[in-house]
Amino acid sequence: HPRQHSLETQLSKFNLTEIEAMLESYTKVLFVRDPFQRLIATFMQGMGSSSSFSSFVQDVLDSGQHNASMAWKPLISLCQPCFIQYDYVVMFGFLRQELGLLLRRAGLSVDNLLPEFTDTQVRWTYSWLSEQMFRELSLQQKKQLSHFYRWDLAAFPFSSSFLSN
């Protein structure tokens, strides 16, 4: 695309014609992660000021979707998958397999380009941690979180998410 070297990085800075031309000329890859695991990761990184996971979740719910931090905002509102036709959706937990496939399809050597990923090894840890954190929440918080992330849960195959039950 002619404006590929532009300093602008947000699509919203371009007009509709430019946006359509850019989206047609690029391979679009979307990286997604279970919303509940995103919340846990955000909490563990200390991005919230709450002392407990339950109070952190309450702060998230109280902030609402429009005032939500990018760290826990629903993916649907961040990446617009209903409007942008992504070529690939890569799930956290399967980065090595999915990126290997993506690189091979692009005709690149997987051996030299693919870094070591830990997402597959930490899947069982997140499973255990998710279970512990989920128990900390009230039934009302669980219902509200499921509602908060309802469109993410409908759009992406997070079948093992605690929020989809």
UniProtKB/TrEMBL annotation:
Its EC number is 2.8.2.-. The keyword Repressor does not apply. The keyword Cytoplasm does not apply. One of its GO terms (molecular function) is sulfotransferase activity. Keywords: Carbohydrate metabolism, Glycoprotein, Golgi apparatus, Membrane, Signal-anchor, Transferase, Transmembrane, Transmembrane helix. It is a single-pass type II membrane protein. It is found in: Golgi apparatus membrane. It holds the Pfam family Sulfotransfer_2. GO terms for biological process: carbohydrate biosynthetic process; dermatan sulfate proteoglycan metabolic process. InterPro entries: Carb_sulfotrans_8-10 (IPR018011), Sulfotransferase (IPR005331). One of its GO terms (cellular component) is Golgi membrane. PANTHER family: CARBOHYDRATE SULFOTRANSFERASE (PTHR12137). Belongs to the sulfotransferase 2 family. This is Carbohydrate sulfotransferase. The gene is Chst9_2.
